[in-house]
Design goal:
The longest helix has 27 residues. This protein is α/β, with parallel strands linked by helices. It contains 14 helices and 13 strands. Helix content is 43%, strand content 14%. The strands form 4 sheets. Strands 2-10-9-8-7-3-4 form a 7-stranded mixed β-sheet, with helices on both faces. It has a two-stranded parallel sheet with strand order 1-12. It is globular and about 60 Å long. The mean pLDDT is 95. The structure holds pyridoxal-5'-phosphate (PLP). The site of pyridoxal-5'-phosphate has 13 residues, from helix 4.
């Protein structure tokens, strides 16, 4: 039936570009080859190629099922014990600072959305400085709230190193009140983290230029260890009186679909933090009202029980060791891949062309993003050699 209408209708919406990573997952799923390797999707895989529920989380879920007596509303902050427990391993000596408060959010994405909405409420003129490449969802989250994104080069794929001078130049020419969006550890998509000396330089310029740092930390414990991975963030907290921290448990507790995260706010005084928190709660009320409980409750149970916490730390250590093992296997295969052994976390980038990415897909059943980003852990143990040989064949 033909309708004529004077107003825009849902049916008139234009096509939008679909998320290329989601399209890649669909493509890999439809490949019938049994030995295909999907290193596009960003989840941890164990030696058998499975993404397991962590042992301690599984026990905590059982305990929750046995002990939980109500699913009544908890309130906008979610589980109030949860951010305190996260703060203990994330903030280190800053945990308990009365100028810092935190609330539970639906994953790291929820924390980032809240952070940028809060910034937009306080200073809509602020520009968000972010190094590229970055995690593809940063841009829509930042621009979606109406803030301007100001990109600078962060990583040189061909040179396989951080473009630190370009980063410092961009931060040094920022305006007071601009935002420095920083990856806390295990940079996604490059795996190239700032060294301690570089964190010190970045912190110095953030203070000098009066910038507001937003630290996005979604992989704590998957680099060098919980404390080591939070060292840059803690340095920022040492030096700055205003900081926002978007944290995620979705990777380090393996609770991806349960959407578990925290936003921490630090301002110059406990009173101004309380005011900022009231704004954040109002914004959260509009967005999701209250965060989902189950995943955060399971994480809380793990962190409150010394035996479960010890087991979580042990399993996180196993995950970290697997990351390091695969990184060294790939880096030992070719001098041009040596840098992969130095990088951190789940991702690295190969300096290969789109044609080479397609060749890997067609000839070897290896699926990675067009940018050459791949999940170091996207393969089972018995696929590592085949993956490495195919990469070496393609890079020559
Ligand atoms: N920040 C970075 C850099 C990420 O890579 C991710 C997830 O991939 C997130 C934040 C958000 O994680 P989630 O919302 O799944 O907790």
């Amino acid at each position: 039936m033909l309708t004529t209408s004077s107003h825009p209708r849902l049916s008139d919406l234009e096509d939008i570009k679909s998320d290329s990573l989601l399209a890649l997952i669909a493509l890999a799923n439809s490949d019938p080859r049994e030995d295909k390797i999907d290193v596009g999707v960003g989840v941890y895989k164990d030696g058998t190629g499975a993404t397991p529920i962590l042992r301690a989380v599984k026990v905590a879920e059982k305990l929750l099922w046995e002990r939980q007596e109500s699913k009544s509303y908890l309130g906008g902050r979610g589980d109030v014990e949860f951010p305190k427990l996260i703060g203990q391993f994330l903030l280190g000596p800053h945990a308990g600072d009365p100028r810092i408060d935190g609330l539970q959010t639906p994953g790291g994405c929820g924390a980032l959305s809240l952070a940028f909405k809060l910034i937009n409420a306080a200073n809509p003129q602020a520009r968000v400085l972010v190094g590229v490449p970055t995690w593809p969802n940063h841009e829509p989250i930042v621009t979606g709230v109406g803030l301007e994104l100001h990109a600078y080069p962060y990583y040189d794929r061909e040179a396989r190193s951080i473009r630190f001078d370009a980063m410092m130049k961009a931060l040094s020419s920022a305006r007071a009140g601009d935002i420095a969006l920083l990856h806390g550890c295990c940079h996604n998509p490059t795996g190239a983290d700032l060294s301690a000396a570089q964190w010190a330089e970045v912190t110095r310029v953030v203070v000098e230029r009066n910038l507001l740092p937003v630290v996005d930390i979604a992989y704590q414990g998957l680099g060098d260890g919980l404390d080591e991975d939070a060292a840059g963030l803690r340095r920022i907290l040492d030096a700055c009186d205003e900081v926002l921290v978007a944290q995620s448990c979705d990777k380090n507790f393996g609770v991806y679909r349960d959407r578990v995260g925290t936003l921490f706010i630090k301002t110059a005084s406990a009173e101004s933090t309380a005011r900022a928190m009231a704004h954040v709660l109002q914004i959260a009320r509009e967005m999701w009202s209250m965060p989902p409980d189950h995943g955060a409750a399971a994480v809380r149970v793990v962190l409150q029980d010394p035996a479960l916490k010890a087991d979580w730390l042990a399993e996180l250590g196993e995950m970290r060791a697997r990351i390091k093992r695969i990184r060294s296997a790939i880096s030992a295969a070719h001098p041009g891949l040596a840098y992969i052994g130095e990088q951190k976390g789940m991702f690295s980038m190969l300096p290969i062309s789109r044609d080479q990415v397609l060749k890997l897909r067609e000839d070897h059943g290896i699926y990675m993003a067009d940018s050459g980003r791949f999940n170091v852990l996207g393969m089972a143990d018995d696929a590592v050699d085949r993956f490495t040989q195919a990469i070496v064949a393609v890079i020559g």
